Amino acid sequence: MAESTVQTVQEKEPLFGKKERKLITDPLNDNNPITVQVLGICSALAVTTLVAKALVMSIAVVFVCGFASLFTSLLRNSIPKQVRMIVQLVIIATLVTIVELTLKAVNYPIYKELSVFIGLIITNCIVMGRLEAFSMANKPWRSFLDGLGNGLGYGAILIIVAVIREIFGKGSLMGIGLIGAGDNYFINTLAEGSWFAWYMPNNLMVLPASALFVIGVLIWIQRSWNTKLVDIS
Amino acid sequence: MELFNIFLKAAFVENLVLAYFLGMCSFLAVSKTVKTAFGLGLAVIFVLGITMPINWLITEYLLSETGIFGMDLTFLRLILFIAVIASMVQLVEMIIEKVSPALYTSLGIFLPLITVNCAILGGSLFMVSREYSFGESVAFGLGGGFGWFLAIIAIAAIREKIRYSAVPPGLRGLGMAFILTGLMGLAFMSLMGIDPAALMGTK
Hints:
The complex is a heterodimer of chains A (233) and B (203).
Chain A: H1 2-11, H2 18-25, H3 41-46, H4 51-75, H5 84-106, H6 108-119, H7 125-133, H8 140-170, E1 172-173, E2 176-180, E3 185-188, H9 208-225
Parallel strand pairs in A: 2-3
Antiparallel strand pairs in A: 1-2
Helix pairs in contact in A: 2-8, 4-5, 4-6, 4-7, 4-8, 5-6, 7-8, 8-9
Chain B: H1 2-13, H2 24-29, H3 34-63, H4 77-99, H5 101-107, H6 118-129, H7 134-162, H8 174-189, H9 196-199
Helix pairs in contact in B: 1-7, 3-4, 3-6, 3-7, 4-5, 6-7
């Protein structure tokens, strides 16, 4: 009798209380997957040359991360420890295939441009990292929120880096030309008497190494303002 | 000699981390001290060296049209590769847990995350696209793993030294690691396109 009352009390946890809100907001700053947990760097280097690519990639990762966490958490008590990685990867691979086919049907040009990297969400460590660290030990609803939050935190960094790299590397934003050589740019550096004739796009920003510099500086900014993250060791 | 060239090329010229930027996450996260970096580096050499020949056998005898099933099954490639890698990493995890519990706890979540280390899946996909033979795939796997091992040792050593420098507080640790990796990557760009065989005059 006593046991059943305890259970009903536990089930009455608020659906979206303080703890749940923390699961979503924490990964945006204090526990950001890229700048604090160091997960998912490879794809952040590869897809951040254009903002449009980064946007599609973030949406895909939010979806995969949220639902993979949900399903793993539902199955967590029936997965033997010895084969857990394979089970997790099968769940992730299924979700990634869904995303891939949906994107192919909805927006083919973006699919063509991203195809390899959508497949590589399978090996995006954020998804599996959260499965290992959180969903294997927590209830489904919380795991789902944790997955969504981490996907959003990843997306936020991805988009900031992509904006910087696209503006300085290609002189455009979301494919709209801002500054560069040609009529299709807002400021045409080739125009007669242009004040910006000295301008050259920075080719370093197109290389993957530049993403490392940009993320490094972002970490610097974040930690100067959020001083509890500073590495004291 | 041919195999040795492939080994050298995979380890230095086409270094998986510094030239292709694969396997970044564990590279940046586990490179705090040389000791843990050494352990993870050995695990990666082992996993790459073993999965590469197994995946070669799979593509050659299971997935190709001349294989056992007699049809083109390449659409199963990703899933099968991942399954092989996951089971190998699971094996490594069990071994390390038994042999060195200290290393096991210090690697933490990054040990199971070798599974999703893009350097390993990327290596297998490179092997397929470059049409290596069995021996060459072994050499490529070991070479790639050795290159990854050297790179993580190098950055861990630099990070151990840089701890004593006056780095701005916000940049200390992880921020500096990102910038250092970027610089090492730029340096490695100058090695792109060098052919060890031509250097040694065997070609």
